[in-house]
Hints:
- By secondary structure, the chain is of the alpha+beta class.
- It contains two helices and six strands, in the order βββαβαββ.
Amino acid sequence: MGGRTAPLGPRPALRPAVPAVPAVPAVPAVPAVGRRLAGPENPSGPLVATLAVHRTGSHTHEIGYWTVAGHRGRGHMTEALRAAVRRALTDAGVVRLVWRAAVGNDGSRTVAERAGFLIEGVQRAGMEHDGVLMDCWAGALLPSDPGLPSRLPYGPAVRGAA
């Protein structure tokens, strides 16, 4: 069931502390699907963050991440997310990368926006947490957003077109 993995960023704080989370079997084309990260104070210490990408549709992948409260606000997840996004859009050929978080999760939204995600709006009952449907913010990033080539052409909507 394994999968390939890759480091997510150059900063020593992001050094893997434990074996990488195996790739989700449904997305063998995404080389860097998941990584468990340890903190800068103790690179072989406890888990402090995760980041993973998985396929949700024929041309869509979703990225998710979290960081332990005591390690937030240092820029580490933003750096890791930027590296993972670039790798997904270039090496893996992802053409649409989606991010979602519960409405009110301002930290996650800030990280996503800093990594280049464009917020598309609110999805009503868009995610489940502990058996409860919750509204969530949704954002997306296309290869063209950071100026990268895409394996599929993209024709954005034109205002006033029927």
